[in-house]
Amino acid sequence: MDSLIENNDIKIIREIVLDISHCLLTNKKYKKEEINEIFSHPQAIGQCRKYIKNNFEHCKINEIESTGKGAILVKNLDKSACIANRICAKIYDLEVLEENIQDKNNNQTRFVVLSKYKSDNINNKKISLMFSTENKPGDLYKILGIFNIFEVNLSKIESRPAQTGLGDYWFWVDIEGNIKDEKMNIVLDIIKKKCSYFRILGTY
């Protein structure tokens, strides 16, 4: 999110949704009781919480910036494991101690494709926005009310502390609709005028 904010020339041109399939990777074929540390991204750890609780309550759990970084660390650490996908095992020559360790088999992760060039897809079905309101009571409620009035569906809303001051937030919103639609342009124009910061991150 920070990278998108800092680089105005980058646009979202596509989204990809992948099924989650986590594996427990090690540099040798250890027994579970031999492992004393597990490394992974907080999201992956959360998605395998029950598995960890049932099998590795004796382990130290380390949250790091990516599952790939966990694989790099584990390659050179004895009696350690990481939670990552099978591709990481192949790239870093690791053993797959156990696979499909996620708590739910219907979980998916969304990725966005970024580009310096605008999408040429005129039939886009989703628009991603980033905006900020003045830090006043009810400001966010008023913005969201505009979507409600015009019956525009929000598929995602996420907040992040802005770097402009304490209590300031950026809001990332995904809305369903086409950027070429006249009603959509009216909605976006109204919101833009009411925000202290407004930017279309991409249409796809």
What would you note in describing this structure?
By secondary structure, this protein is an alpha+beta fold. The chain folds into 2 domains: 107 residues, 2-Layer Sandwich (Alpha-Beta Plaits), CATH 3.30.70.260; 84 residues, Periplasmic binding protein-like II (D-Maltodextrin-Binding Protein, domain 2, 3-Layer(aba) Sandwich), CATH 3.40.190.10. Helix content is 28%, strand content 34%. It has a 5-stranded mixed beta sheet. Strands 9-10-8-11 form a 4-stranded antiparallel beta sheet, with no helix packed on it. The longest helix has 13 residues.
List the helices and strands and how they pair.
Elements (H helix, E strand, L loop, with lengths): L1 H5 L4 E9 L3 E4 L10 E4 L1 H6 L1 H7 L4 E4 L3 H9 L4 E5 L1 H6 L3 E5 L8 E8 L10 E7 L6 H11 L4 E8 L7 E8 L5 H13 L2 E7 L1
Parallel strand pairs: 3-4, 3-5
Antiparallel strand pairs: 1-7, 2-5, 2-6, 8-10, 8-11, 9-10
Short characterization:
Helix content is 28%, strand content 34%. The chain has 204 residues and is an alpha+beta fold.
What is the fourth-level CATH superfamily of the largest domain? ACT domain
Instruction: Tell me the span between the first and last alpha carbons.
Output: 17 Å
Which percent bin holds the helix content?
Answer: 25-40%
State the order of secondary-structure elements, H for helix, E for strand.
HEEEHHEHEHEEEHEEHE
- Radius of gyration using CA atoms only: 21 Å
Low-confidence stretches: none
The backbone outline, from C-alpha atoms, is elongated
Average pLDDT, rounded to a whole number, is: 91
Structural class by SSE content = alpha+beta
- Topology, number of strands: 11
How much strand? 25-35%
CATH structural class of the largest domain: Alpha Beta
**What is the CATH architecture annotation of the largest domain?**
2-Layer Sandwich
**Per CATH, what is the topology of the largest domain?**
Alpha-Beta Plaits
Q: What is the count of DSSP helices, taking H or I runs of 4+ residues? A: 7
Number of domains: 2
The biggest beta sheet, please?
A: 5 strands, mixed
Biggest β-sheet: strands ordered side by side in the sheet: 4-3-5-2-6
